[in-house]
Each structure stands twice: as C-alpha cells, then as structure tokens.
Amino acid sequence: MRIEELETPAVVVDLDVMERNLHRAGDYIRQHHLQLRPHTKTHKIPAIARMQIEAGAYGVTVAKVGEAEVMAEGGLENILLAYPVFGEGKWDRLAAIARKRSLTVAVDSAATAEGLSASLRRAGAEAGVLVEFDAGMHRCGVQTAEEAAALAVQVDRAPGLRFAGIMFYPGHIWSRPEEQAPALAGVGEQIREIVSAVRAQGLDCAVVSGGSTPTLYQSHQVPGLTEIRPGTYVFNDRNEWGGGFCSLEDCALRVLVTVVSNAVPERAIVDGGSKTFSGDAWISGDRKGYGYIVERPEASLEALTEEHGHLRFPAGAAKPRVGERLSIIPNHVCACVNMHDEIFYHRGGVVEGSWKVAGRGRVR
Ligand SMILES: Cc1ncc(COP(=O)(O)O)c(C=O)c1O
Hints:
- The chain is of the alpha/beta class.
- The protein has 2 domains: 3-8 and 240-356, Beta Barrel (Lyase, Ornithine Decarboxylase, Chain A, domain 1); 15-234, Alanine racemase (TIM Barrel, Alpha-Beta Barrel).
- The protein has helices at 15-32, 46-54, 65-73, 88-100, 110-123, 145-157, 181-200, 238-242, 274-277, 333-337; strands at 10-14, 35-36, 60-62, 79-81, 103-107, 127-132, 161-167, 207-210, 227-228, 253-261, 267-270, 291-293, 300-305, 308-312, 325-330, 342-347, 350-356.
- Strands 1, 10, 11, 12, 13, 14, 15, 16 and 17 form a 9-stranded mixed beta sheet that branches.
- It is elongated.
C-alpha cells in the first residue's frame, strides 16, 4: 500500500529520514565522547526506542511513570525518569520497575528523595538519582551549588538511593546554533561549580546529563557534560526548522490530510483540526499557523477547530480541489504524536507498517 491510499488524517513517518536523524546523533556522540539517553516523550513507542539504542543510545529518558512502565515492558534498559515524581503510589510503581531494570530518577527536593527511598527500601530495590539544577529555564532544579551538594549528600545517605550525578534541561536556549556559545559556556560554569561542591562532600559526580534538540549539535561546547537527552530530533518539526536546528528534509513526520471543503473564498478546510495537530504555537517563527504545508507553502494553516483545519490562501492563488491530499509538518511533533493511537511508517511512499503509540495517555 502507498501512503496516498491511507485514510486521513494519518500520521506518517519516513523511515529513511528518521534513521538519518538517529545516525547523525549517534555519530555526533561517538565523535565527542558523550552518552545519549534520548527522551522518548516525542514518540512513546518502544520499537523506536530500540532503534535509538541500535544507533548508539545507551538508555532512554521518560517524563512519566506510565511511560517508564511502557519502556520497561518494551524491554528497554537504563531508564531515566527526568521529572520530579511525587506520590507514594508512583514511587511504589518506580520501585517495581527498579526491581527489573536499571532505573535513574531526577529529584530537586528532599521530599521526593525521601518518598522514593521509602518505596525502594520496602521493595528491596535500588535506583540511581540525579540531582536537578536550574540552568536558566526556571522550571525545576535547585538554585545553588550548595543546595545541589546538600541534596546529593542526603540522597547518598538514603537507603535504596544511589547518587549518580546531576542533570539540567536547557529548554530556554532557543537561539540559532551559531549564537548559543555564550549561553552554553554559562551552563558549563554552573556545572563546574556544582561538581566541585559535590566532590568537596566526598561524592563522585559520574553523570552530568543535559541536552535538547536545539542544542544537540553544540553539546560539546558545554564543559563537563557527559550525556545528552534530545527527544524531538528523532522526527523534528516546524518549530525546530524555524529555529534553524534542522532543515525541512530532516522532518521525518508529516500529517496527511484531505481537503474536504473549499466553498469559502480564499479558504479551504482539511480533515484534521486541534484533535489531530495540537494547538501548540510556532514559537520559533511569527507564531502564526499550526504547521508547514509541504505542497502549498504559500498557504497558512491559519486556525484549528476540533476537526477542521482552516487553510488560508493568498488573494488570487489557486485553491486545492475538494479531495486533494496535503501533507503538513506540525509545529510541535511530540504533542501531535500524543494525539494518535497509531502512526504509519514508510519508505519512498510505500507503507511498511504501523506502530501503536504505546505510551499515549500514560500521564500518571
Ligand atoms: C527534562 C527534559 N529532557 C530532555 C528533553 C528533550 O528536549 P527536546 O524536546 O528539545 O528534544 C525535554 C523536553 O521537554 C525535557 O523536558
């Protein structure tokens, strides 16, 4: 079957492009002696995580306990939960995973470390812990080197916990790759201070985990970094393209839609709206539109209602006929994938199969 025969809306991944993205990241980390633990929130599919491992990753990252369970059931090892998990039920579920798989959890508070420790102790299990610091995004993370060292000591003393290192997420660095050097050097300076404060307490800081897709290929400019966790790089999207972090040819995922109405002047409607694309803005561009229309770049996916994608065409431009198919690169691919049960993969337009988005909806 060819992708043109799929019923729409359908999410399709070009395997050749995705594999090129995976291998490029694999080559990069080997060249710079970094480890790669990609964030699987982008796809939530164990089969893709296994392809990432084959391309050089040494583990996977998740945001939710449910996602960790999906990856563990999918046979993945070395799972990092890079999120401050809170709640006894969740800590117990993590302890159950830790009995079967190597698990590392990020914390930025004593409360989380204590709760996790109690569950692990009850289960007779052990987990690595990374202390998260705030590298400038101001979302999570301890604020000073002293706080990081104090929490590291507390973790080290807690039963079931093994202090493994530190982590941060540079989600605030969205400048063009060639302009990132000062911000990355600043993060390197924070790392230097924190690692030296931790070492002064007699602890080893083996892992320094960071990374994102916008900073992926500049990671070697962060002194002290040992591993990176990009997620979006597997597919890329309009936001990564708009920021100059990839080319359109590197965008592996498209949403196929059909024009279902062109009755209104200068407009047309496609059969995917906010329940197909997600309403994320084009934050790396002029904030207009919800995707890049590959066949009609002059048109804008101007608005989304639940099941209607509203296209606007420039005055005088030819409009597509009803029944015409278009392919659209979404603004934010992670949120888009999370709206679909199944995504299709193809080579050269020939559908080879589909993946179930196994971690979809696993928000607890
Ligand atoms: C903690 C953490 N690590 C890694 C990533 C991956 O970053 P990106 O989406 O830029 O690939 C994210 C993304 O939200 C994140 O929150």
